[in-house]
Amino acid sequence: EMAELTEEAVAQLHQEDSDIKRDDEDEGAPVEAADGDSKPPTTAVERHISIQTKVEGLEMLVDLNGAGRKSCPLCPEEKFKACYSHKLRRHLQNLHWKVYVEFEGHKMCICHLPCRNLKPSLGGDQASGRHMAHYHCVVCSVTIARKTDMVSHLKRHVNKGETEASYSSSSDVALNEPAPLGQAYEIMKELGTNVQLLPNHTTPQKSDTYFSRKMKTNRQLVFCSLAVLAEERNPLECLDAFGATGIMGLQWAKHLRDSVRVTITDISDTCVKMIKENCELNNIQVDGGPWGPDRPGAEAEKTPIATVEVAMMDANVIMHLRSFDYIHLDPFGTTVNYLDAAFRNVRNLGIISVTSTDTGSLYAKSPNVTLRHYGCHIVRTEYYKELAARMLVASVSRAAARCNKGIEVLLTVALEHFVLVVVRVLRGSTQADESAKKLRKLVHCQWCEARVFLKLGNMVDDTLPCDCQGSLPGKTAVQLGPLWFGPLFNTGFLRKMLSAAVKHSMDDIQPLVKTLICESECTTLKSLVHGSSALTNQVECGVVIKTLQSGEEARLADLSGKRKSGEESGNVLKKLKPDASLEHPPFYYSIHRHSIKGMNMPKLNKFLQYLTEAGFRVSRTHFDPTGVRTDATLQQFKSVLTKYSVPTFTNTATSTQTSVSSEKPV
């Protein structure tokens, strides 16, 4: 009798599972609402039928002792047709049980049921049946296709101290709608903000709610730039145009509170639901949504710490409809399709941050795509990362000029996975003309990698300082660009970003920001980062911002950010012209690229000291760990490198000569 009851319970569980699947696919018969509606919501995730402790438990899912043909409980009918008991037993043991993954006594057998909600392909077709094989996690009930990925997934649970008994799924947070069948949310915390992630969040082709842990540096840099603008004026209207999980906008609202009014948008309905759930997870109210007792399934809770607006809308549409003080663009790939809309309604002296992840076209791996998206011709060079940064700034400048606006570049970062550009917007045709004049062609020698920006009216053959054009057969010089000719950093803005990073305990990006400060001033003196220097004026296209080193004086500084008008603004621009040489020199040289064969070159820090003693400005660069940014020409750079390089064969030749002389006969 106990065996019959167990079989009936298993059969009922499998029947409920099948009914739920038919509801999800909208192709089954209506489910009987007898027991399903009357059961209260549980806080634990029911274990899937593919998770067993013994092979007998897997065989008990179907009556193998009965007569007639039986269907496999873990395979759909079209994959494995009904067969007799002896064949079905071999099928369960050899296919499902043989490749199980074990965790704390539980065996997770492979499942072929349509549990995974995969995104359709570009042609609109669903994934084929061979892609449906997967495992169900015993801890969080997530579905994972590969066995090795499931083993790694379980190791992460062990490292976090999560077991079957202690780990609860997304049911701890009151959701408006249940999670898809077979999927559970993974909770990730970054900068004090919790977000829920789907199991396939790292694959943008299979998930709308894409999330990358490698972009943490990018998110912190964007946050610091917004924090600096919030000190100048508040409240700010901020837009996170590509929300995905909403983590960036939630970090803004949670840490900056009343200084910002955050709007998070995404075109995907799945992302919008996920963002709203993440708002409730962080005690942030959605603008226009219910809160407290009015929220379904919620008890009396504390007052929300902030309010954000979540909208399902295309990024170009909302940027045309509304005005913002701060706009962040971070699509998956290139950003050129959204630049015109971003500059259309951005407010004066506002900031636009642009993150491009299409490194294939930016880093000269796909020149045809680069020409199509950015209208630039580039080749692979030793300074390819700065070349990509200047190319992206040039595209931003052209988009701003089309809207009669100019830009002031505040920050440019190019790392392995992304290129980030932060610019301040300055209205007016005069500012637009000044920005447009900073777009120039670059002449590059493909043999020695000498480079110089091309001035108007100059020929290519008369521009390069090297003599490769005449000493080598053929043409060695190529024109690249058009590229941004102006500076890539603003020292005063970077100093305030460093203060914001210290204030919000962002230890990860502080070394990077310090490197950017030294690079912007083209110096190796660390005292310029933390030194107690006097008041300095940082000018941004006529905008005077006082930068102070001490915290008390910084709070008393005038950070209104208003543009100087009339003669005062003109005088500031006139004073800037003699100091133009203080801007950091364009591009850098790699010490390994120009090393001399048969010579041991000096250590990089020593070499920087030698260049400084020779009278050149020099600094490290974040673009390349072996790069040196200097105002010296390539010939001068090589001459200093040759002067302080030591031959590698000196010791070898001396020892060889000594051994030969000792072996001579008397």
Summarize the model shown.
The chain has 666 residues and is α+β, with helices and mostly antiparallel strands. The chain has 22 helices and 25 strands.
CATH class of one domain: Alpha Beta
Number of strands: 25
Low-confidence stretches: 1-7, 16-45, 121-130, 165-183, 530-580, 652-666
The 3D shape can be described as globular
State the CATH superfamily name of one domain: Vaccinia Virus protein VP39
The CATH architecture designation of one domain is 3-Layer(aba) Sandwich
Largest sheet: 8 strands, mixed
Percentage of residues in strands = 15-25%
Compute the gyration radius: what is it? Answer: 32 Å
Q: Determine the N-to-C terminus distance.
A: 108 Å
- The pLDDT mean sits at 78
Q: Helix- and strand-based class?
A: alpha+beta
Percent in helix: 25-40%
CATH topology of one domain: Rossmann fold
**Number of helical segments with 4 or more residues:** 22
> Looking across the biggest beta sheet, what order are the strands in?
10-11-9-8-12-13-15-14
Subcellular location: Nucleus, Nucleolus
GO molecular function, one term: tRNA binding
Keywords: Isopeptide bond, Metal-binding, Methyltransferase, Nucleus, Phosphoprotein, RNA-binding, S-adenosyl-L-methionine, Transferase, tRNA processing, tRNA-binding, Ubl conjugation, Zinc, Zinc-finger
Pfam families: TRM
